Automatic annotation (TrEMBL):
<feature type="region of interest" description="Disordered">
    <location>
        <begin position="404"/>
        <end position="430"/>
    </location>
</feature>
<dbReference type="GO" id="GO:0012505">
    <property type="term" value="C:endomembrane system"/>
</dbReference>
<keyword id="KW-1133">Transmembrane helix</keyword>
<keyword id="KW-0732">Signal</keyword>
<dbReference type="InterPro" id="IPR008928">
    <property type="entry name" value="6-hairpin_glycosidase_sf"/>
</dbReference>
<keyword id="KW-0326">Glycosidase</keyword>
<dbReference type="InterPro" id="IPR005198">
    <property type="entry name" value="Glyco_hydro_76"/>
</dbReference>
<keyword id="KW-0812">Transmembrane</keyword>
<keyword id="KW-0325">Glycoprotein</keyword>
<feature type="compositionally biased region" description="Polar residues">
    <location>
        <begin position="421"/>
        <end position="430"/>
    </location>
</feature>
<protein>
    <recommendedName>
        <fullName>Mannan endo-1,6-alpha-mannosidase</fullName>
        <ecNumber>3.2.1.101</ecNumber>
    </recommendedName>
</protein>
<feature type="transmembrane region" description="Helical">
    <location>
        <begin position="440"/>
        <end position="461"/>
    </location>
</feature>
<dbReference type="GO" id="GO:0016052">
    <property type="term" value="P:carbohydrate catabolic process"/>
</dbReference>
<dbReference type="GO" id="GO:0009272">
    <property type="term" value="P:fungal-type cell wall biogenesis"/>
</dbReference>
<dbReference type="InterPro" id="IPR014480">
    <property type="entry name" value="Mannan-1_6-alpha_mannosidase"/>
</dbReference>
<dbReference type="GO" id="GO:0008496">
    <property type="term" value="F:mannan endo-1,6-alpha-mannosidase activity"/>
</dbReference>
<keyword id="KW-0378">Hydrolase</keyword>
Length: 462
C-alpha cells in the first residue's frame, strides 16, 4: 500500500540541504516569483497529459500502482497553477491548464466524466469545480469553442450535487460517493459536504444570487448540528466523517487541514456576501482558531503549518500530501474577504512559506520538496509535496489587486443557472458492479486511512 512504503526516510537528506535547495526571501516578490517558477516547473514534470497520445487532465495512474494520483488531485493542481499565474504574472502554464479543464468536463459538462464514475465522490467533483471557480474569479481566459463558461461549469456541478441531498439518513447532508455501488457510499464526510458548501458560497458571491447563499446556509446548519462539528473547551473541532449505517451518531476523530480550509473558505465568502454579517465573522474566527491550535503546533514555533495526523509518523498518502496546499490558498483568500483576519493569518503564511522552502532539497535535482515543513527533507516527493510548497509560497503575494472577482466587480464569466440541469444525477444509477478492492483508496481518502492511521499516529482523543 503506497502510503506505507512511500515513507522511507533518507538519512542523507539533511546533509544535502547545505549545498542544494531553494533560496527564498519571503519579503521579495522577485524571490517568490523565481522560487515558485521552479516549484511549478518541477510539479509539472509529473504531468504528461498535454503530450501527443496522452489524456489531458490526468496525472499518472491508475491508483493500483505506487506513483499514482487520483483524478481530483489533478483538478487541484490546475487550480494551483491559476493561482500561480495570479501571484506572479507568469502565464506559461495557462494553455495547459485551459486544455485540461476543458477536456475533463464530461458529456454532461459538469465534471463527471464516465472514466471517473467508479470513483466519483462529491469531493472529487468539487475540486475540479474549485479550479473552474478560480478561473472565473481571476478572469482567466475562457476555454472558448463549445466549452461552457467557467462559471456555468460550476453551476452545472452545483445543479448536479443539489440532487444528492439525502434526507433519508442523518437528517440531511450528502453522501461521500455519488454512486451507491462505490465503497464509501455509507459515509457523509466533511470534504464532500464542506466542498459543496464552499461551491454554494462562492456561487452566491460571484453571481449575487441569493438561492446559492440559502443553500450554503442549509448545508452549514446540517454540518454544524452533526457530529462532524464538535466544540470542546471553547475550541471548534471539525472531524472527518460520519456513518449513515448508524445514522451518524458518532464520528471518525481525524482532523485534516483541508476540512478546516473548505469550511473557512465558504464561511469567508458568506461573510463577504452578507456584507459583513457578524455571525459569519465569528464562524470564520472559530474555524481559524481551531486550525491554529491543531495545525500550527507550538513545538514548531506556532506559525508553521503541519498535517499532524500523518507527517510525524511519515504515513501521509498522495492525497494527504497535498492538503496543506488548500488550507494555504484558502487562508490567503480569507485575508481579502474578511479583512479582520489579515493580521493573524499573514505571519502564519509567511513563516510556513519560509519553512516549506528550506526543506526542498531532495530528489535528483536537489530541490524537490517533502511534506514536513518543520524539519529537513523527509525523503518523499510528489505532486502534492510540490503543490503544497507552491501554494504556500505563492500565498505570500496575496493582495487586494487579485481579490476574487464577481459579476459586480468585473468578473466576465457568463453564468447559466440552469447549466447541466438535464444531466442524470440519480445516485442509484447502476453500471458494472465495482468491487471493494477495485475501489480501495479511491475518491479522496478516508476509508483506508481510518483503519491504517489508527495506532500509527497522533490523533486527538477528547
Ligand atoms: C506540455 O506542457 C509543458 C509545460 O508543463 C510544456 O513545456 C510542453 O511544451 C507542453 N507540450 C506540448 C506537446 O504542448
Ligand atoms: C477516457 O479514457 C479513454 C481511454 O483511456 C481516453 O481515450 C479518453 O480520452 C478519456 N476521457 C477523458 C475525459 O479523460
Ligand atoms: C438563482 O439560482 C437559482 C438556483 O440555481 C435558479 O433557479 C435561479 O434561476 C437563479 N436566479 C437568477 C436570477 O439567475
Ligand atoms: C469583501 O471583499 C472585498 C474584496 O477583498 C473587500 O474589499 C471588502 O472590504 C470585503 N467586505 C467586507 C464586508 O469585509
Amino acid at each position: 500500500m503506497k502510503f506505507i512504503t512511500s515513507s522511507i526516510l533518507t538519512p542523507l537528506a539533511g546533509l544535502l540541504s547545505v549545498v542544494n535547495g531553494l533560496t527564498l526571501d519571503v519579503s521579495s516578490a522577485d524571490s517568490v516569483k523565481s522560487v515558485t517558477s521552479t516549484l511549478a516547473y518541477d510539479m509539472m514534470t509529473y504531468y504528461s497529459g498535454n503530450q501527443t497520445g496522452q489524456v489531458p487532465g490526468i496525472l499518472p495512474g491508475p491508483c493500483e500502482s505506487t506513483a499514482c494520483y487520483y483524478w481530483w488531485e489533478a483538478g487541484a493542481m490546475f487550480a494551483s497553477l491559476i493561482n500561480y499565474w495570479q501571484y506572479t504574472g507568469d502565464s506559461t502554464y495557462n494553455p495547459v491548464v485551459s486544455q485540461a479543464l476543458a477536456f475533463q468536463i464530461g458529456p454532461d459538462e459538469n465534471y463527471n466524466p464516465p472514466n471517473q464514475s467508479k470513483n466519483m465522490g462529491v469531493d472529487d467533483q468539487a475540486f475540479w469545480a474549485f479550479a473552474a471557480l478560480d478561473a472565473a474569479e481571476a478572469n482567466f481566459p475562457e476555454a472558448g469553442g463549445d466549452i461552457p463558461s467557467w462559471i456555468a461549469l460550476v453551476q452545472a456541478v452545483f445543479n448536479f450535487q443539489k440532487d444528492l441531498w439525502d434526507d433519508a439518513t442523518c437528517g440531511g447532508g450528502m453522501r461521500w460517493q455519488v454512486y451507491s455501488f462505490n465503497a464509501g457510499y455509507n459515509l457523509k464526510n466533511t470534504i464532500s459536504n464542506g466542498g459543496n458548501f464552499q461551491l454554494a458560497a462562492r456561487l452566491a458571491y460571484y453571481t449575487g444570487n441569493q438561492s446559492y447563499a440559502d443553500w450554503a446556509v442549509q448545508m452549514w446548519d446540517w454540518m454544524a448540528a452533526s457530529p462532524l462539528f464538535q466544540t470542546q473547551d471553547g475550541n471548534l473541532y471539525i472531524w472527518d466523517n460520519t456513518n449513515t449505517d448508524n445514522n451518524c451518531i458518532d464520528v471518525a476523530h481525524y482532523a485534516w487541514t483541508y476540512n478546516y480550509g473548505t469550511m473557512l473558505m465558504g464561511a469567508a465568502y458568506m461573510y463577504n456576501f452578507t456584507n459583513g454579517d457578524a455571525m459569519w465573522e465569528q464562524r470564520v474566527q472559530d474555524i481559524l482558531n481551531g486550525a491554529y491550535l491543531l495545525f500550527f503546533p507550538t513545538e514548531y514555533g506556532g506559525n508553521v503549518m503541519s498535517e499532524f495526523q500523518c507527517e510525524p509518523a511519515s504515513n501521509c498518502n498522495n492525497d494527504q500530501s497535498s492538503f496543506k496546499a488548500y488550507l494555504s490558498r484558502w487562508m490567503a483568500v480569507t485575508t481579502l474577504l474578511v479583512p479582520s483576519t489579515y493580521d493573524t493569518i499573514m505571519p502564519k503564511l509567511t513563516a510556513s512559506a519560509a519553512a516549506a522552502a528550506q526543506q526542498c532539497t531532495g530528489g535528483d535535482n536537489g530541490r524537490m520538496c517533502g511534506r514536513r515543513w518543520y524539519a529537513s527533507w523527509d525523503g518523499t516527493s510528489g505532486v502534492g509535496q510540490q503543490m503544497q510548497a507552491l501554494s504556500v509560497i505563492g500565498a505570500t503575494q496575496i493582495n487586494s489587486g487579485i481579490a476574487p472577482k464577481s459579476i459586480k466587480t468585473g468578473g466576465t464569466s457568463k453564468g447559466d443557472p440552469n447549466a447541466g440541469s438535464d444531466a442524470n444525477a440519480s445516485p442509484s444509477v447502476t453500471t458494472s458492479k465495482i468491487t471493494t478492492a477495485d475501489k480501495a483508496g479511491a475518491g479522496i481518502l478516508t476509508v483506508l486511512c481510518i483503519f491504517i492511521v489508527i495506532g500509527g499516529s497522533v490523533w486527538i482523543i477528547l
